[in-house]
Amino acid sequence: MEKSFIIILGYNSSLPFYNHHPTSQILSMKNNLFLIDCGEGTQTQLLKTKIKMNKINNIFISHLHGDHYFGLISILSTYQLLRRNSLLTIYAPKGLKEIIEIHIKWSNSNINYPLRFVVLSSIKQKKIYENKNVKIYTIPLKHKIYTNGFLFKEKKNFKRLKIDKIKKIKEIKIKDYRSIQKGYNYIKKNGTIIPNKYLTYNRIKSLSYAFCSDTKYNPEVVKYLKNVDLLYHETTYLHKYKDLANKRGHSTSINAAKIAKKSNTKKLIIGHFSNRFTNKSMFKKEAKKIFKNTIIPKTLVKYYI
Ligand SMILES: [Zn+2]
Description:
This protein is an alpha/beta fold. The protein has ten helices and 16 strands.
């Protein structure tokens, strides 16, 4: 199984800019593909990757500013043209379902594949998705309109078996493997306990990814982000514009770096830069003063978590 990774399809803010795309990301976690936000041009960006669009079954929309969802209708329409038949679930604030339905109605088109909307409305953190490998939670953010970030967590990995050691104990059968992989000791028929560490390798750490865009500086968010392996946090402004950032519900480079530091995250990716700043490396320079492991991403490149 490939290690979990993200591909950033776009990280620009709302005004269009040549060769830059608004917010959208793909997360591959334990072989699940999740699309996070869907700004204009997401579909054409996706076509430049090896990601198979049809394998995306869950789309997460942080909020209803256009630079975070204007690309959605075209993707839904393509799925119809490609005769998708598997369920697609969209997690988004109230209103998106209505927007999509109005579009379908007035374009006299149909969506014949199962499409489900999960309306996000809580201002508290909620678990919104779980399967056997992954759990996903909202991250309540503070922006001009109702907004969530998303926290993606791998579930505890099973331990890898030391088959040579196991084979030496004849009474261990294949049906016993799963409980040993979960970390239990093996108890022989004569009552002897075989410690789990003798039968398995150390458990591989489960990884987590947090997506925070758009939001003003809000240290309360740190409690949701503790020890995440990778954090994406918006930095619309350089720090000299901190008052403007706060007024517009956005963060500065220093704000993002402080959140990363307080959260004890391992790596910070910044984005959602305002076009007023032509030299994007200034964002990194500022953030690095507070949090060293900060990067400005390249689009369409895999970043392993
Ligand atoms: Zn916004």
